[in-house]
Amino acid sequence: MSKEAVIFKIGWNACINCGACVAICPQEAGFISAFDTIAVDTPCDIACMLCEDICPVTTITHVAAVNGNGVF
Amino acid sequence: MPPTEYDIVIIGSGPAGATTARVAAKLGLRVLMVDKRQELGAPIQCSGAVSRHALEACGVIPVAEFIHESIYGFGIYNVAGEKTTIDYRQLKPSEYGHQNGQKPLGYVVDRRRFDRHLMTLAERAGAEVWLKTEGLSYQTDGSEYCQIQLRRFNQPIQVKAKVLVGADGLQSQVGKWAGLRTHIKITELASCLQFIVDGVKTDGLLEIITGHHWAPGGYAWVFPKGHGYAEIGLGVICTMTKKNAQWHLDQFMQQSFFKERFQNARILEIQGGGVPLAAPLRTQYAEQVILVGDAARHVNPVTGGGIHTALSGGVIAGEFLAKLIKSGAPATAENLKGYQDSWLDQLGHKMWQLYEEKTQIFRTDDIDERDRLLFQTMSQYFSPYSEYKKI
Questions:
Q1: Which of B12, B25, B274, B334 could anchor a disulfide with A20, C-beta 3.0 to 4.6 Å?
Q2: Percentage of residues in chain B with pLDDT exceeding 70?
Q3: Domain map (residue ranges) of chain A
Q4: Yes or no, beta carbons of B273 and A28 under 8 Å apart
Q5: What is the pLDDT of residue B3?
Q6: In the CATH scheme, what is the code of domain A6-70?
Q7: Does A54 sit within 8 Å of B191, measured CB to CB?
Q8: Distance (Å) from the C-alpha of residue B284 to the closest C-alpha of chain A?
Q9: Binned average pLDDT, 10 residues per bin, chain A of 72 residues
Q10: B348-375 per-position pLDDT tens digit
Q11: How does pLDDT run across B110-147, given as a tens digit for each residue?
């Protein structure tokens, strides 16, 4: 995979906890947050961005992960 | 203290998990069901429509506790607003209606109350249920019992079970633990949003609005929600549009042939979810593990309806597991394949046919022709003569 790892950010104000991002996510088990969304504290090396596409309220964005840590 | 032993441990107390628990416990199995939530059913990710037949066939008596409103038929609209009405009050007045001796065709249920009710039925049948309990992992070592790690109110707990049942929804972690191919294609997961509203009239019909213009890849709906409320929602396939579900729902409410009807709509609740318009999982079992409900993708690929299929899958799973475990046979993947075979015979093969039909429609490149096919299929699907009526 040539894509660079990313860290997802969720705009919690718009998130409706629908779970669609986790449902579409190709990551292994456990790539989830305490609020039943995709993980927001772990770099994603797949970076397919399907979670951003499926979100009914478009509240997922990402930043590049640097050395396994996000640039915040 | 050694870990407590159960015949089956179920992760997730939705309609599928709670039905598996109820049926298995009633047939004499030692059942533990866990759910990580503090209240079941929430956040709501479902429109709540289910037929009376589905409830009764799965041993759930319809009661006021969970019914928002009774349903008597369907109104199917094409993109321009032309309507096919399938009102069972007119088609079969001797059977369907509000009067004594007449019955509803189905219901829109309150998922919070409904899921709690199904859990109660499971507990009354003898299942143990722990809320605020999350499944973390499981291991098999070739022995009769697998080990399951749970966390309950922050407390780590280990239990043993002959079979672990993943009823943990579309986002199933159990399926991933077991290495099953649970991944769904982006072209087959509808991104859905719905508003519960005041100020919009309904008439006992589930209204379904087709047409690429309103809901590309899916459809829009207006359902009665009880107390004079309605539910307006839609699902879209995001590869077929550049806009999100929220934009399409706003567009549908403000621009469609229903804009006058919706002009006084006041939003009371906002809900969403991913609804699979996909085939069932090809493999729904592994060593000492089965999946049921959304986790196994037991969802109607044409309507996106999943309550009936979850309840039916739960009955099939509960009955199968009771028989297998009482026979003393080990819960190997080979033996658990029988669950999937039984499910395919009773429901799955028809769901595969529906999937083929749905795929044909959305493979059609010409939008007008695709709209025509979807409207026609939906109109036929809900007719009294449909071969799929009971799915």
A1: B274
A2: 99
A3: 6-70
A4: no
A5: 78
A6: 3.30.70
A7: yes
A8: 16
A9: 85 96 95 95 95 97 78 50
A10: 999 999 999 999 999 999 999 999 999 9
A11: 999 999 999 999 999 999 999 999 999 999 999 999 99
Quick one: pLDDT at residue B293? 98
Residues in B closer than 8 angstroms to A53, CB to CB, are: 186, 238-239
Place of tokens 């550049």: B242
Please report the domains of chain B, with CATH numbers, ordered by start residue: 4-44+111-184+281-362 (3.50.50.60), 67-109+185-277 (3.30.9.10)
Closest residue of chain A to B273, computed from CA coordinates: A18
Note whether A18 contacts B273, CB cutoff 8 Å. yes
* Record: contact A16-B245, CB cut-off 8 A: no
Q: Could you give the CA distance from residue B257 to residue B300 in angstroms, rounded to a whole number?
A: 28
Decide if B162 contacts B7 (C-beta within 8 A): yes
Asked if B45 has any chain A CB less than 8 Å from its own CB, the reply is yes
Please state the rounded mean pLDDT for residues B192-218.
98
Inter-residue contact B220 to B209 (CB < 8 Å) = yes
**Phi, psi dihedrals of residue B260, rounded to the nearest 5°:** -70, -40
Burial of B25 (0-12, 13-18, 19+ CB in 10 A): buried
Nearest to B104 by CA among B62, B59, B65, B48: B62
Question: What average pLDDT does this structure show over B229-257?
Answer: 98
Place of tokens 């609020």: A35
B345: Cβ contacts below 8 Å, ≥ 6 apart = none
Spell out a b/e string for B42-62, using b for 16 or more CB atoms within 10 Å of the CB, else e. Answer: ebbbbbbbbbbebbeebebeb
ipTM associated with this complex: 0.91
DSSP string for residues in B252-312: HHHHSTTTTTTTT-EEEEEEEEEEE-SPPPS--EETTEEE-GGGGT-S-TTT---HHHHHH
B170 — contact with chain A (CB < 8 Å)? yes
As to burial, measured by CB atoms within 10 angstroms (0-12 exposed, 13-18 middle, 19+ buried), residue A34 is exposed
Chains A, B: CB pairs < 8 Å: 72
